[in-house]
Design goal:
The chain is α+β, with helices and mostly antiparallel strands. 23% of the residues lie in helices and 24% in strands. The chain has eight helices and 15 strands. Strand 9 (200-202) and strand 10 (209-211) form a beta hairpin. The structure holds N-oxalylglycine and manganese (II) ion. The site of N-oxalylglycine (OGA) has 9 residues, from strand 5 and strand 14.
Length: 298
């Protein structure tokens, strides 16, 4: 039996008595049950290798293999194996990225509240980070409970929000942190078109409703820019109040996984002259949140 130690009553739990390097079906079934109740699971002292992490992640669904618009390096070499996002400030040789490196901006955008891959038609279901190098201060990862945030809204407000659809764009959050707009070539744009996502969704395993927000949102369909921004900022502020958030301070060997369908997360700033290195495996949701044949009027 795994040991489930709730960190908060319904949002974050630490999982003990599980060896992620050789996970059995029985133990995975218990982890999966914990994952439907708690949206963030924390494992300590799990120095798994790339292969072991991929095997674990794939138990949750189909591994997301992203065509990254910006990671091209000489010979297309990467610091981490195919199948991972490189969540680090290091280049393919393990050297600190320079200030102007596009890869730095791509990861800097992670410091805004978001949920992974909501800029894809079929967004992320589960993401899993494992930590190889950590910084002594800063560099925490924070999570926001979007089911609790929904539950706390007045019924009248909830009613106004049902049915709204937001446009998510990969480049919005990247432009906010200083990515050069000229670097978004037509090819890079075509790799990442803006996509629609519902604003309110139901988490299948728990049946609980959840706000679905991210810094990738450019607008709400049917609203003008200012009204969209006001609504999205208001809801983001509401959802990221301390009452709904948890901060994870990293130790080497930590593995943290979260449910992108009902959480947001963000990285906190840190001294970038220090290496911080993690790798992330993400599995896709089972389908789009908005039907493929949906078209907006304006
Ligand atoms: C991510 C992410 C934040 C961090 O890996 O998806 O947003 O703390 N990371 O690095
Ligand atoms: Mn992320």
């Amino acid at each position: 039996m795994i040991a489930i130690k709730p960190v908060t009553p319904e949002f974050v739990a630490e999982i003990g008595n599980a060896d992620l390097s050789r996970l059995t079906d029985a133990v995975f079934t218990e982890i999966e049950a914990a994952f439907s109740r708690y949206a963030v699971l924390v494992f300590h002292h799990q120095p798994i290798n790339e292969e072991q992490q991929l095997v674990f992640a794939k138990r949750f669904g189909e591994l997301e293999v992203s065509v990254q618009p910006f990671v091209q390096t000489p010979g297309n070499k990467r610091r981490v194996a195919a199948g991972f996002s490189d969540i680090s400030n290091l280049d393919e040789n393990g050297k600190l990225l320079t200030e102007k490196d596009n890869r730095r901006f791509i990861n800097l955008a992670n410091q805004y509240w978001h949920t992974d891959s909501s800029f894809k038609r079929t967004p992320g279901k589960m993401s899993m980070l494992s930590a190889q190098s950590v910084v002594p201060t800063g560099g925490e990862t924070e999570f926001a409970d979007m089911r609790a945030a929904w539950d706390a809204l007045p019924a009248e407000r909830q009613k106004q929000l049902e049915g709204l659809i937001a446009e998510h764009d990969y480049y919005r959050s990247r432009l906010m942190v200083g990515l050069d707009p000229h670097s978004i070539s037509p090819e890079r744009r075509a790799l990442r078109p803006a996509v629609p996502q519902v604003l309110i969704r139901t988490h299948p395993a728990s049946g609980r409703k959840s706000l679905y927000l991210a810094s990738h949102i450019t607008r709400i369909y049917g609203m003008d820019e200012a009204e969209s921004r006001r609504l999205v900022d208001e809801l983001t502020e509401h959802a990221t109040q301390p009452a709904f958030t948890y901060q994870h301070h990293w130790t080497v060997g930590d593995v943290v996984l979260w449910d992108n369908r009902c959480t947001m997360h963000r990285g906190r700033p840190f001294d970038e002259s220090q290496p911080r290195a993690m790798r992330r495996a993400t599995v896709s949701d089972t389908g789009p949140t908005v039907p493929e044949n949906w078209h907006h009027a304006a």
